[in-house]
């Protein structure tokens, strides 16, 4: 056990996973926030920050799997918008129906992506672009382009508001459970390692007798399901199904994955670093809000975006510098 | 049942693998027709044949990549039904492909255990056990490396051993090695041979595919020769001669080949003319420390020497790829050469050693690959003259006998030998006066080798001058008018044909290798 741990730690410190930089940046940003803002580490900020970012985290983790195979899923934002409407419609039946229903809708759209990419061999970029438009249209059609209010009388509202174990909202626990489960899937199961092998060399993986297509189907369905779950969080967080939301979410998710050191070509990356990447991107907004709150500066949302872009660039630069590992021993 | 059969017929004649009457047709084209192969447990069995002879098709049928159209495959006497690589692996047939079929981005351990990972009692991958198993298997081959590192951080040789380790960990009964030594240096080849002997000693059979006949005599027990989709013969290697094997492979008479020499470079090609190129005491940061040689019209000058003696470096310097730090390279008209563009403009071509990295553009067609470098010359009124381009390409396809489905076929679909001919055509189309050929026949089969050599010879007879680098002594000894022997970046001596023998060349290289600096080039 300790042997495994020390090996993994060494791999991280050596930057073998290309993900050292994101952890450094995350610690720096958190320490900066704690020192500069009184309420940064307060229960309210932590709870609301995580609650709001839960949907981005689950989407990013799903995206991470897709990118690890060398693919991409552009449909996630639209899928979340679509399933938020589904969840809102199902909310009168309670969380026990609305949550699985919306996730199922996401899985189904993920299944369509898998069909396009694996069975019909359409490049992922194009296939998921098509479902992105399709899901967007579907969300507008079933909602009549209106936000659909959730049933405030049902237990659906508890998801983002009621604290589990008197600690944090349920959505955060669900997210944590999903992240841990997927971390185990990637690191410790065959399908997870196959995902990595496919991204590292699809032909080679096939030659090794691995189930390449199965792994690809898995990641697109998984990503769809994650986006479906994000839609549930969206509906509960805003109190309504949001057919117009989700624009650009796929790019934020890709950014989180990349900041986490995952290669866009696939083969190398981790769930943990992706979560760190998503937290980091969220924290930049959080800190800018605090900065605005101090009244010294006042940045518009547009400028915040510019700053986030610059920050993204800086972290990726940091990553590439830190992950420059010396070439291994030859022979 | 298998065990019983094994016992009843249990002598050394029991075959591990038996393939009989194998046929394979691709869209109406016959690739295999009545091919046979039998492999005994614990033997090293070679398959040889020209490209297109059906070697790889036969092997792909055995490994489940293709399905046979006819014939039977048996393993230990029992019928074997394999339709995917996975099933072949499970049956104990592992393949180490020429292009390594491993995942360089993942760790050594993952590459060894992937698909067959040891599990904990919760069903999760047990990495501690996986690392230990990987270390243990590699240790059997005398390899001690950090198995948690990315496979890609190790040399090709280590990667190949990892591929073999994977085969062993899957309990393979047969390991197929496809051109396993093609990217290894001498010492690494020795290590590989030691590993093959270890496999043999444990009863694992090895099916060995190689273009290098010398290796066959060192490591193989039996050899099967294929030609035109059929099995010609199977021999004990000890009972064969190199000439006999080549003649069976080509389907030509042994005496005919003997008369013509082992390469198609031998024989005169007219008297050399005036001096075209003169390199004097050239030095470079890449390791040249005073190399001198001349090249005359209608002449083949070989650059001989051991690996690292500066052969390729000299060629690169002449072509202007590496800047000189001393000495001069001069053309007959006095023009200095300092960039590849200048060299090409002056009529020099350079066919590089590494076809994949420097030569072909895989997804482009045969036509585009041929005319890439000369498009500016094909322009008429600013646009490429398609008609002229097509005529030119067709001319070279015919002249060089490039086997292709058509000029629009992507070059990656061609065999190695035909790819090399396309590259040769690319340079010849520029109508150069001097062509530098760095290992022009490496990695191509015997037949294509012959054809490429005849093309070179014909071009030289027509007035081309060639600077030839080759690791195959035969090519230099039979082909070059003069051989400049390089040692440690210096030219140390020069051998003149006719009269050069292989042992004389080796002697010259070895003599000077023992005592560098004692003798200088007579130039």
Protein model, in words:
The complex is a heterodimer of chains A (about 325) and B (about 525). In chain A, strand 2 (about 165) and strand 3 form a beta hairpin. By secondary structure, chain A is mainly alpha-helical. The two termini of chain A are about 30 Å apart. Chain A has a single domain (about 45-295, about 300-320), classed as Orthogonal Bundle (ABC transporter involved in vitamin B12 uptake, BtuC), CATH 1.10.3470. Chain A has a two-stranded antiparallel ribbon with strand order 1-4. A two-stranded antiparallel ribbon of chain A has the order 2-3. Mean pLDDT of chain A is about 85; it is low at about 1-15 and about 325-330. Chain A has helices at about 1-15, 20-35, 45-70, 75-90, 95-120, 125-145, 160, 170-190, 190-200, 200-205, 210-240, 250-260, 270-295, 300-320; strands at about 150, 165, 170, 240. Chain A contains 14 helices and 4 strands. Chain B is globular and about 75 Å long. In chain B, helix 5 crosses helix 6. Chain B has 3 domains: about 1-260, Rossmann fold, CATH 3.40.50; about 260-345 and about 430-523, 3-Layer(aba) Sandwich (Rossmann fold); about 360-430, no CATH class. The termini of chain B are far apart. The longest helix of chain B is centred in the middle third of the chain and has 16 residues, at about 185-200. Chain B has about 525 residues and is of the alpha/beta class. Chain B has helices at about 1-10, 55-60, 85-90, 110-115, 125-140, 155-170, 185-200, 215-220, 240-250, 255-260, 310-320, 340-345, 355-360, 365-370, 385-400, 415-430, 445-460, 475-480, 500-515, and strands at about 15-25, 30-40, 45-50, 70-75, 80, 95, 175-180, 205-210, 220-225, 230-235, 275-285, 290-295, 300-305, 325-330, 350, 380, 385, 435-440, 465-470, 480-485, 490-495. In chain B, strands 6-7-8-3-9-10 form a 6-stranded mixed sheet, sandwiched between helices. Chain B has a 6-stranded mixed sheet with strand order 15-18-19-13-20-21, with helices on both faces. The chains are: A mainly alpha (about 325), B alpha/beta (about 525). The interface of A and B includes residues 200, 211, 267 and 330 of A.
């Amino acid at each position: 056990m300790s042997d495994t741990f020390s090996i993994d730690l060494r791999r991280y410190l050596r930057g073998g996973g290309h993900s050292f930089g994101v952890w450094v940046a995350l610690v720096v940003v958190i320490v900066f926030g704690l020192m500069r803002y009184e309420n940064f580490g307060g229960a309210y900020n932590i709870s609301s920050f995580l609650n709001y970012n839960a949907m981005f985290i689950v989407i990013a983790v799903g995206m991470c799997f897709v990118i690890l195979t060398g693919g991409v899923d552009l449909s996630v934002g639209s899928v979340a918008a679509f399933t938020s409407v589904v969840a809102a419609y199902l909310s009168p039946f309670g969380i026990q129906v609305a949550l699985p229903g919306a996730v199922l809708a996401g899985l189904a759209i993920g299944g369509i992506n898998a069909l396009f990419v694996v069975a019909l061999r359409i490049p992922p970029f194009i296939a998921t672009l098509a479902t992105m438009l399709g899901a967007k249209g579907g969300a507008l059609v079933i909602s009549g382009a209106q936000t659909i209010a959730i049933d405030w009388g049902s237990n659906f509202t508890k998801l983002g508001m009621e604290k589990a174990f008197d600690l944090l909202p349920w959505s955060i626990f669900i997210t944590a459970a999903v992240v841990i489960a997927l971390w185990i899937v990637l690191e410790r199961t065959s399908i997870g390692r196959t995902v990595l092998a496919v991204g590292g060399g699809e032909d080679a993986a096939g030659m090794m007798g691995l189930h390449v297509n199965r792994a690809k189907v898995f990641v697109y369905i998984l990503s769809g399901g994650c986006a479906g779950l994000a839609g549930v969080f969206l509906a509960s967080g805003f109190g309504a199904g949001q057919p117009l939301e989700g624009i650009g979410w796929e790019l934020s998710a890709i950014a989180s994955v990349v900041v986490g050191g995952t290669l866009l070509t696939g083969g190398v990356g981790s769930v943990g670093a992706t979560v760190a990447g998503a937290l980091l991107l969220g924290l930049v907004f959080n800190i800018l809000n605090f900065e605005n709150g101090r009244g010294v500066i006042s940045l518009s949302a547009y400028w915040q975006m510019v700053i986030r872009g610059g920050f993204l660039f800086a972290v990726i630069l940091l990553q590439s510098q830190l992950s420059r590992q010396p070439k291994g021993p030859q022979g | 049942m298998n065990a019983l059969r094994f016992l009843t017929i249990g002598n050394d004649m029991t075959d591990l693998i038996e393939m009989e009457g194998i046929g394979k047709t691709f869209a109406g084209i016959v690739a295999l027709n009545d091919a046979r192969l039998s492999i005994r447990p614990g033997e090293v069995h070679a398959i040889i044949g020209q490209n297109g002879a059906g070697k790889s098709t036969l092997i792909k049928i055995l490994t489940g990549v293709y399905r046979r159209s006819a014939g039977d495959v048996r393993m230990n006497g029992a019928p074997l039904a394999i339709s995917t690589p996975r099933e072949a692996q499970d049956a104990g047939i592992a393949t180490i492909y020429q292009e390594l079929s491993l995942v360089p981005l993942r760790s050594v351990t993952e590459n060894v255990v992937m698909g067959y990972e040891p599990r904990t009692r919760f069903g999760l991958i047990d990495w501690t056990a996986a690392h230990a198993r990987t270390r243990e298997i590699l240790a059997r081959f005398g390899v001690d490396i950090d198995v948690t590192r990315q496979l890609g951080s190790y040399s090709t040789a280590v990667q190949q051993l990892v591929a073999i380790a994977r085969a062993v960990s899957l309990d393979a009964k047969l390991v197929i090695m496809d051109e396993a030594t093609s990217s290894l240096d001498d010492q690494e080849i020795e290590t590989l041979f030691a590993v093959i002997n270890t496999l043999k000693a444990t009863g694992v059979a090895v099916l060995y595919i190689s273009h290098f006949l010398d290796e066959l005599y060192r490591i193989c027990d039996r050899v099967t020769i294929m030609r035109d989709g059929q099995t010609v013969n199977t021999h004990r290697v000890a009972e064969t001669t190199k000439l006999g094997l080549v003649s069976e492979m080509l389907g030509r008479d042994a005496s005919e080949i003997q008369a013509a020499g082992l390469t198609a470079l031998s024989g005169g090609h007219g008297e050399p003319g005036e001096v075209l190129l003169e390199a004097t005491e050239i030095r470079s940061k890449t390791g040249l420390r005073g190399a001198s040689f001349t090249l005359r019209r209608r002449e083949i000058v070989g650059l001989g020497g051991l690996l690292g003696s500066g052969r390729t470096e000299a060629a690169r310097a002449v072509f202007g790829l590496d800047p000189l730090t001393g000495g001069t390279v001069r053309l007959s008209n006095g023009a200095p050469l300092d960039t590849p563009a200048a060299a090409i403009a002056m009529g020099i071509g350079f066919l590089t050693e590494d076809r994949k990295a420097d030569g072909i553009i895989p997804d482009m067609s045969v036509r585009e690959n041929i005319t890439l470098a000369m498009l500016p010359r094909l322009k008429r009124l600013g646009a490429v003259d398609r008609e002229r381009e097509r005529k030119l390409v067709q001319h070279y396809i015919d002249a060089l006998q490039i086997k292709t489905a058509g000029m629009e076929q992507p070059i990656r679909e061609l065999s190695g030998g035909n790819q090399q001919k396309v590259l040769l055509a690319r340079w010849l189309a520029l109508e150069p006066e001097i062509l530098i050929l760095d290992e022009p026949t490496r990695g191509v089969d015997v037949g294509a080798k012959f054809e490429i050599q005849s093309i070179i010879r014909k071009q030289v007879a027509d007035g081309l001058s060639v600077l030839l680098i080759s690791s195959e002594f035969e090519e230099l000894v039979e082909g070059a008018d003069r051989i400049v022997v390089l040692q440690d970046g210096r030219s140390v001596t020069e051998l003149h044909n006719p009269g050069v023998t292989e042992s004389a060349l080796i002697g010259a290289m070895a003599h000077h290798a023992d005592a560098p600096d004692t003798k200088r080039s007579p130039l």
